[in-house]
């Protein structure tokens, strides 16, 4: 609304230049607000799809600019660079660049990064054995010059394995040594940062727990009780009771200081200094420390009086009180409008009081300031009779009050006390209820985010533990063929729970509708990548340009604009689901201990595997 009010007038509105400026301002605000509502809320599919698509495309372009991986670093920042082969659906040429922090992948003769692997998330690098039992057909000629790069399961690359092939043995050995050394160094540096982040997260979890907040609130309440007792007893300076109160004050100050230091450590930097309650705690505790350290300096007595405000820290410790205070702060703006109206009425009556009754009652209406105070007293319905008697010019022969003061006081009380004050309370109550709901929802979202972060840290800790086990174990055990799981594995696993072909088709169409945010009927690489990120899979799906090229068979399934329509999208996901099912059956057959003769489970798995093989032979 305010953006609409501050917008420049268009050509249709410039004809109103002869109108007063306030009138033009209101007309401009109404016009822009109407257009904004029409664009954002009142679009209909039959006449607003083009405009909606244009807005979404602008947002997508803006998002694409933020999510791009950028260009390759200059040669001075490259530790190693060479053109290699990367396993997609088959071996494809790629340009591989190793820096101190990432392993970057780009297309040949291109400076745009198509994918990257953070070095600290590389668990291990293994060679691919030249063994037909372990390798697929596309790897039979890879020899000893191909290697796998394994990543963390819940990291940037979602646990995917990358397979590369070099042109010679010397080049292969140098890449293996460089990747192993740099990834090990990057993991050490990341471990230091991760260790601090882990301690910070644990501290934040402890200080944010219910038990900690209740204990802190109890200490603040205990400090209040001590201050009340000290104000009641008024111990003499130098007495034993005064020494006891001084000792308690030092103990509370030290406890609150330790708590503040823990909060600063767990919320460093911006989360702490952007929180008003944290800054309030910082100010109160700093004043308390200053009164302890600077006891003999002049002016410390004034600071010592401010220690009484330490009881207000109770609002920052108890969530219910904090929600109430936040809701009151949010409600102040709409309430201020109603108070402004009441203030304008009070000022108008104060001016009338000065003009009508300054001679009859100089003490009440002698000046504007006196008149404002008098009318404020009347608005509380306390002392209005005294003021009315003071301004009454009743003649000795006339009975009853003068009509002028009665009308003046009566109308003011009706407008202010009977109408405006209940209006202020209604506005306050309505906005307060809405603000409380919003604050509780925000607190619930914050708790859910904290739980997700903690779960993610637990998963990463488990990944690091498995990574350490891999490094401590024997290297030849991990020398195996690359995993054939695709980049859409979390989505494919979810789709693989279909009941029949119709159910699978419906599920794929639902996914397409979710990804097609611009309602254009096709999915571009950017649209598919951003949509899959927003779907919050676990682990998350990070689609690279190489992955998109592999899924679309190097662009054969794309239209002229490079997008994928619903038919091709359904064909892609159906093929991925079939591939996933085949791999699950084959893996279950290889892993099953019941493969021996006479085993019913082994016979069933063998029969399923035979059906899959015959299905592949019958496929065109």
Automatic annotation (TrEMBL):
Which InterPro entries does the annotation name?
EF-hand-dom_pair (IPR011992), EF_hand_dom (IPR002048), Ion_trans_dom (IPR005821), PH-like_dom_sf (IPR011993), PH_domain (IPR001849), VGCC_Ca_Na (IPR043203), Volt_channel_dom_sf (IPR027359)
Q: Which residues form a coiled coil?
A: none
Family matches, as PROSITE patterns: EF_HAND_2, PH_DOMAIN
Keyword entries, A-Z:
Membrane, Transmembrane, Transmembrane helix
All residue ranges annotated as the PH domain in the record: 77-184
- Name all EF-hand domain ranges: 503-538
Q: Name one Pfam family in it.
A: Ion_trans
Using the UniProt record, give the first listed, main subcellular location.
membrane
Q: Where in the cell is it found?
A: Membrane
Feature: compositional bias, Basic and acidic residues: 460-471
Q: Which Gene3D superfamilies match?
A: 1.10.287.70, EF-hand, Pleckstrin-homology domain (PH domain)/Phosphotyrosine-binding domain (PTB), Voltage-gated potassium channels. Chain C
Q: Which GO terms describe its cellular component?
A: voltage-gated sodium channel complex
TM region positions: 250-270, 282-306, 327-352, 406-433
Region of interest: Disordered: 444-483
Q: What GO MF terms are annotated?
A: calcium ion binding; voltage-gated sodium channel activity
User: What membrane topology is given?
Assistant: Multi-pass membrane protein
Instruction: Write down what this protein is called.
Output: Calmodulin
Q: Where does this protein come from, organism-wise? A: Cryptomonas curvata
């Amino acid at each position: 609304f305010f953006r609409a009010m501050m917008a420049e007038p268009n050509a249709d509105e410039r004809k109103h230049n002869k109108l007063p400026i306030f009138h033009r301002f209101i007309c401009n605000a109404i016009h822009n607000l109407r257009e904004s509502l029409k664009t954002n809320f009142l679009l209909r599919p039959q006449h607003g799809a083009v405009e909606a698509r244009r807005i979404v495309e602008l947002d997508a372009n803006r998002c694409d600019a933020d999510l791009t991986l950028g260009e390759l670093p200059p040669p001075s920042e490259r530790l190693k660079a060479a053109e290699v082969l990367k396993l997609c659906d088959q071996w494809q040429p790629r340009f591989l660049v190793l820096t101190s922090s990432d392993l970057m992948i780009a297309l040949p003769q291109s400076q745009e990064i198509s994918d990257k692997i953070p070095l600290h998330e590389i668990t291990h690098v293994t060679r691919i054995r030249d063994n037909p039992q372990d390798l697929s057909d596309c790897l039979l000629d890879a020899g000893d010059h191909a290697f796998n790069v394994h990543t963390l399961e819940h990291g940037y690359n979602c646990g995917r394995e990358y397979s590369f092939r070099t042109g010679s043995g010397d080049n292969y050995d140098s890449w293996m040594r460089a990747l192993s050394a740099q990834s090990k160094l990057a993991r050490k540096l990341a471990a230091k940062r991760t260790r601090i982040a882990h301690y910070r997260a644990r501290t934040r979890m402890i200080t944010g727990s219910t038990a900690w907040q209740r204990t802190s609130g109890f200490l603040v309440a205990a400090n209040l009780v001590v201050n009340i007792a000290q104000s009641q007893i008024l111990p003499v300076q130098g007495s034993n009771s005064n020494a006891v109160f001084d000792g308690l004050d030092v103990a509370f100050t030290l406890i609150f200081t330790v708590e503040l230091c823990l909060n600063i450590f767990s919320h460093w930097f911006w989360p702490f200094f952007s929180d008003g309650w944290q800054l309030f705690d910082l100010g109160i505790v700093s004043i308390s420390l200053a009164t302890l350290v600077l006891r003999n300096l002049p002016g410390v007595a004034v600071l010592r009086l401010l220690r009484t405000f330490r009881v207000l820290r109770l609002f920052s410790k108890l969530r219910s009180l904090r929600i109430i205070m936040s809701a009151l702060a949010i409600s102040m703006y709409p309430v201020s409008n109603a108070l402004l109206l009441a203030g304008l009425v009070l000022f108008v009556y104060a001016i009338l009081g000065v003009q009508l009754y300054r001679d009859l009652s100089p003490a009440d209406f002698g000046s504007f300031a006196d008149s404002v105070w008098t009318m404020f007293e009347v608005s509380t319905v306390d002392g209005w009779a005294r003021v009315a008697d003071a301004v009454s010019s009743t003649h000795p022969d006339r009975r009853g009050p003068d009509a002028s003061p009665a009308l003046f006081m009566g109308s003011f009380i009706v407008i202010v006390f009977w109408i405006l004050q209940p209006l202020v309370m209604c506005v306050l109550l309505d906005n307060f209820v809405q603000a409380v709901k919003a604050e509780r929802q925000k607190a619930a979202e914050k708790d859910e985010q904290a739980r997700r972060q903690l779960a993610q840290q637990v998963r990463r800790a488990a990944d690091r533990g498995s990574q350490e086990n891999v490094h401590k174990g024997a290297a030849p055990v991990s020398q195996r063929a690359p995993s054939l799981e695709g980049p859409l594995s979390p989505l494919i696993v979810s789709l693989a729970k279909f009941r029949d072909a119709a159910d699978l088709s419906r599920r794929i169409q639902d996914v397409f509708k979710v990804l097609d945010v611009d309602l254009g009927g096709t999915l571009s690489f950017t649209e598919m990548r951003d949509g899959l990120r927003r779907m919050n899979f676990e682990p998350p799906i990070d689609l690279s340009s190489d992955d998109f090229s592999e899924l679309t068979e190097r662009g054969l399934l794309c239209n002229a604009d490079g997008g994928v329509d619903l038919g091709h999208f359904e064909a892609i996901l159906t093929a991925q689901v079939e591939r996933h099912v085949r791999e699950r059956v084959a893996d279950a057959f290889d892993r099953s201990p019941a493969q021996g003769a006479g085993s019913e489970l082994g016979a069933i798995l063998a029969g399923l595997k035979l059906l899959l093989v015959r299905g592949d032979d019958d496929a065109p």
